[in-house]
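Re: the request from the purification team.
They wanted to know what the chain is likely to look like in 3D before they choose a buffer screen. I agreed to run a prediction and write the result into the notebook, where they can find it.
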Amino acid sequence: MSPDPLPPLREVIAAHGLSARKTLGQNFLLDLNLTARIARRAGDLTACDVLEIGPGPGGLTRALLAEGARHVVAVERDRRCLPALAEIAAAWPGRLTVLEGDALALDPLPHLTPPVRVVANLPYNVGTELLVRWLTPPDWPPFWQSLTLMFQKEVAERIVAAPGSKAYGRLSILAQWRTEPKIAFELPARAFTPPPKVASAVVHLERLEAPRFPANAATLSRVVALAFGQRRKMLRASLKPLGPDLPALLAEAGIAPTERAEQVPLEAFCRLARLVDAR
């Protein structure tokens, strides 16, 4: 770990007149001890490129570089933060690339050299969508080795939830199908500026080289979205759009038509997705 030569984040924010914007889903994490803890949870970064989304004033960016990341590619939509990020780039010459733009529209891959780890305090308004995109590329394994991401605690609990729990849902299926997800630690609302209304948690997802069970990603996503889109209904109703042969498909998959989505394990959803493709 190298020393951080820059001023405290509160001074950086004051100097550049930065304030977190709700419209951008921003909540700045100012405690450099916590940002260092997130960076360390991502693993050994010395031989990795790191993709960071929404660096803001750069607290986590600084931690990633101080922890030895080979190269950090940071995608930032808010132009107000670019001068602060430029100061970080100057402090660690040649190791930080800042891309201005929307993470949902911008392709960072030309700027990254494998192996790649994704580490981010994700903006709340795009976090779930980005996670789903990273979990459902057409080809697997993906460009990243691991994801170390901060979410609202409720979202983190959905990612690691087991069948039969209220938190179990689409994110649980997609995350557990292709990765080993674990909640690393929780952070109270008071750790952020401004404090959000909910607690947060850091989730570490280590990719599997192959999915736990065979299935087509697009088909599995569709089946799971239908099943959990009306989670209070029995599957014979929520999965009706799959067609008139649904009763036979469910029977062959070993799923009772009277079950609800939260009762069905990952393996059974994958089996159903394969049957949908094979008919």
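For the purification team: The chain has a mean pLDDT of 93.
Please add any questions underneath this entry.
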